[in-house]
Amino acid sequence: MSDASFDSRPIESEAQFGDYFALLKPRVMTLVVFTAFVGLLAAPVPVHPFIGFVAILFIALGGGASGALNMWYDSDIDAVMKRTQKRPIPAGKVTRDEAFAIGLTLSVFACVFLGLATNWLAGGLLAFTIFFYVVIYTMWLKRLTPQNIVIGGAAGAFPPMIGWAAATGDISTASVLMFCLTFLWTPPHFWALALFVRMDYDNATVPMLTVTHGRRATRTHILVYTVLLAAFAIALGFTQVGGPVYLAVALVLNALFLKGAYDIWRRDEDASEADNFRAEKKFFKLSLLYLFAHFGAILVEAGLDRMGIFA
Fold first, then answer.
1. Care to name a GO molecular-function term for this sequence (predicted)?
2. How far apart are CA 30 and CA 9, in angstroms?
């Protein structure tokens, strides 16, 4: 459990709107919104623009609620990790109790109103996503196993399925493969980050793979997951959301991603830290483009389908 001392930590200055907004992890929310939006528009059932807007809004609020609850629970380790020390709670802007109240309230609001606005499958999937991220990942697995980010990555992979379900009321092969695309992308993406911020996880005693098994094992895991990712990413191109544009993007990006993972895997352990970090940072930056480009290509395919092109 997080250090209770954060409950009584004095607030250094009056919180601003931006401090409360930061609790929602807006950068992560961007990915949630985008992939959910793609899932919604790629679905074969047309959605009224207002219903679509409301659905994405509630999915975004649900994603933000997860972020607030994550910061509430992890405030102790956020305080000792360099990249998270400026978050609202360790920075003394917001109390843990406030973060918990905001996260819980937004969770209930988002799930109930998504269900009412669209259907209860979508609302239920959003509720399960929040539960999975907060309870299964944050409270249980994150501090227990080096496979934390693998299993926990499922939470970030649900939004396109939720968007699809909001439009169709069901789950399909295409929506499951969109889930798999994000799910299998998460480990190499975060392990690449962990390779050049390892000391953060050491200091926080979080059992990230880099801490428990070392750099060599982490690089091997990155390569294995990248191979699996490439297979699922290309397979998605042969479903109803794929097409020539998506396949072209997938083939090029997965070739580059596989090369990047291989370059990291074959890295000389005796090479300088600067050389290692350069390769890992390059792969990490490519991973950011990778996911947005794949879902962007799905969005283009949906637009072309609406116009009757390649139909």
1. protoheme IX farnesyltransferase activity
2. 30
